[in-house]
């Protein structure tokens, strides 16, 4: 699956420049995608780090995990 060319969100980091002014620097982005099951997810990239982001639909807030501790998901690689 290809990511959209334009990210849905930009990831910014706050820093203070030499003059003491607070600045924002773009450090990454998130692209909205849809899995094979039709559920939306995001690809989050910050530098070389690449993560998948899913909505937490578990009412307990714990997520759905397997016996091995990995999260069950159905997305295209």
Description:
The protein is built from no helices and 4 strands. The protein has strands spanning 9-16, 22-34, 40-46, 49-53. A 4-stranded antiparallel β-sheet has the order 1-2-3-4, with no helix packed on it. Strand 3 and strand 4 form a beta hairpin. It is elongated, with a radius of gyration of 16 Å.
Distance between the termini: 7 Å
Going by helix content, strand content and strand pairing, the class is mainly beta
- The succession of helices and strands, N to C, reads EEEE
| Cα-based radius of gyration, to the nearest Å | 16 Å
The shape is elongated
**DSSP helix count?**
0
Question: Which features does this protein show?
Answer:
77 residues, mainly beta, four-stranded antiparallel β-sheet, 4 strands, 43% strand
Secondary structure topology:
Elements: E1 9-16, E2 22-34, E3 40-46, E4 49-53
Antiparallel strand pairs: 1-2, 2-3, 3-4
Summarize this entry quickly.
The chain is mainly beta. Helix content is 0%, strand content 43%. The mean pLDDT is 81.
